[in-house]
Every structure is written in C-alpha cells, then in structure tokens.
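Next comes this protein.

***
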Amino acid sequence: MEILELKKNFKIIGIFVASLWVIFFLSQVLPLQQFGIIPRTTFGLIGIITSPLLHGSLIHLISNSIALLTFAPIFALVESKGAIEKVILLTILTGILTWVIGRSANHIGASGLIFALYGYLISFGLFKKHFAYMILSLFLIMSYGYMIFGVFPTLSYISWEGHLSGFLAGIIVAKLSTKLEKKT
C-alpha cells in the first residue's frame, strides 16, 4: 500500500464530506433538492450522479457525514490504489438500481453510497478468502450489523430502496473485484 495514494484518498474523502456541507447550505437558498433520483423518469436520471450530494436536513447530513467518515477511510485502506474508481462505480450502480426499483419519490442523500461501502467491506473478505479481510468483514458485521435493517421499508421519508441498492451494489462490486483480481 502506497502512503501517497492513501494520503490522496483521505484528502479526497475530506473534500467530499466538506462539499456535502457546502452543497447543503447552498440548497437552503437554491432549489438543488430537485436533482435527486426520481425513479423511472428521464429527469430523475441526473440524480444517479447528484443524489449523494443532496441532503434533506441537517440531521440527515450529520448522520451521513459520520457514516462516510467511518466507512470511507476503511474502504480507502482496503482498496488504496483503485478506491476512487470503485467509489464512482458503487455510486453509479447504486443510483441505477435505485432509479429502477425505487418508489415514486425524490431519493437524496449519501446513504446509498454508505450502504454500498458497507456491503462491499463486509462481503469483500468473504469473496477474497483472505484472513485479515475476513476478520475486518466480521468486525464490521458485529459492529454495524444493525445497518441491515435499513434495507427494509420503515419510515416513508427514508429511501430504503437506496439503502438496498447500495448494499447490493457493494456486494456486486466486491464479487467482480475479487474475480478480476484472480484473473490477473
């Protein structure tokens, strides 16, 4: 693992989370919230990219910031060199799945990405069959296992579809990643 790559990834994580805060405050005066994922609509396709940047409330932003600052550095440590590309893939796949399966609503927030990181990290160790990664997966399941309940319908203003899409995207990308590693 290259230290410079890790530093770069940590810097990007900080910039991303800071950007969420700037965008949130901008959304208090500009109608940015409309750019979430609106399933099965042409306009809603833009949300595949923009929805993780938008948050409905300060509490929403705070909880997603804390979760990102928890899972993103772990992901950066595990992936180091290909982390940015995989986060982009996770974001796009999560957005597409949400656009396909989501109920007719405006889906916003970084929680789909958070669930994607979580799904990736807990399944990566199992797919890779590497002891240290399996221990990490087990630790995350034991520490954050309650997150699995977020993929089920609960409150109407929470996009469980985004959570489920992210979780599935994380597992899919982890599986593809380990398959590609075995081929090279």
In short: The chain is about 70% helix and 0% strand. The chain has one domain: 3-183.
